[in-house]
Design goal:
This protein has 307 residues and is an alpha/beta fold. Helix content is 33%, strand content 17%.
């Protein structure tokens, strides 16, 4: 379980983040600026990690493979960015940490972004990418022994939505799903939107309606694929949900975990004291980030196929 108290390094970094306004706090929403920032490339800190371009039909992304990774164990990772920004390259360093910790290959997908490609385009891309990943890895057409889907923020919500879509289409499911700081309630009704507004150093509730509007258009925000807190999780594989204490969308993870548990899904919810939105992605890794990635790796080891 997460440590009971925030580390000295974690608290200092939290205060540092608060030295600048959270995104959207001014009431403005600059999509171009957001895309420029989250469209940047953050290389792995370990030079032995391989980054291999990936293409499947019109889909693209990048494999991230640590030196001792077993490429038959594969993780599809869905990046954050509010469904409207972000790219796989922004998560290379985090994917490298996960690949090394879990001894797996990580596929970073560049799914289509809204508003140019609104709901459910990102889900369709994620489903197709997962199905491709099962039969082909970083070294070519080799069958996976174990597969997982993971993601953060919007990608955490997409992780849950992709699992639901695969189940509903009677397609093979992964061995598990990992959702970090999941954006899973697009009705924007969570209690933490109010209670954590002044504490969250990353996002302001004032920016969320714009994300939702760009992504959903006229679609119903209560559609379970859009807001997985409303889904029936029957038949979904084991889940690990991680979220920081000081997140405006913390309640999304709490409600999604409760709903999954009520449907009989093996579900682990970790609320990390003193932490913030997608804290395992920040470099250099905080002690909490290292521990959170190790928890993800342990989840993968625990649920991977032993056949």
């Amino acid at each position: 379980m997460p440590r009971d108290a925030v580390s000295t390094e974690g608290h200092a970094y939290f205060l540092q983040l608060h030295s600048t306004p959270a995104f959207g706090a001014s009431g403005s929403f600059d999509l171009d600026e957001l895309r420029q920032g989250m469209g940047s490339r953050r290389e792995p800190t370990d030079p032995s990690v391989r980054c291999i371009p990936w293409q499947h039909d019109d889909l693209s992304g990048e494999w991230v493979v640590a030196a001792d990774a077993d490429t038959t164990i594969r993780v599809l990772y869905l990046h954050g960015g509010g469904f409207v920004s972000g790219c796989g390259g922004y998560y290379l360093a985090m994917a490298a940490h996960l690949s090394a910790a879990a001894h797996c290959a990580v596929l970073l997908l560049d799914y289509r972004l809204a508003p140019e490609h609104p709901f459910p385009a990102a889900i369709e891309d994620s489903v197709r990418s997962f199905e491709s990943m099962v039969t082909a890895g970083p070294n070519g057409s080799t069958q996976a022994e174990s597969c997982f889907i993971a993601g953060d923020s919007a990608g955490g919500g997409l992780t849950l939505s992709t699992l639901l879509a695969l189940r509903d289409r009677l397609r093979p499911l992964p061995q598990g799903g990992i959702a970090l700081s999941a954006f899973a309630d697009l009705t924007l009704t969570g209690e933490s939107l109010r209670s954590q507004e002044s504490s969250d150093p990353i996002m302001s509730p004032r920016c969320l309606p714009q994300f939702v509007g760009h992504y959903l258009g006229d679609a119903d925000p209560k559609n379970p694929y859009a807001s997985p807190i409303y889904a029936d999780y029957t038949g979904i594989p084991p889940l690990l949900l991680q979220v920081g204490e000081h997140e405006i969308i913390r309640t999304d993870s709490v409600l999604a975990a409760a709903k999954a548990r009520s449907c009989g899904v093996d579900t682990t919810l970790e609320i990390w004291p003193g932490m913030f939105h997608v804290f395992p992605s920040h470099e250099p890794l905080l002690p909490e980030g290292e521990q959170a990635i190790e928890h993800m790796a342990a989840f993968i080891r625990r649920h991977k196929s032993t056949a």
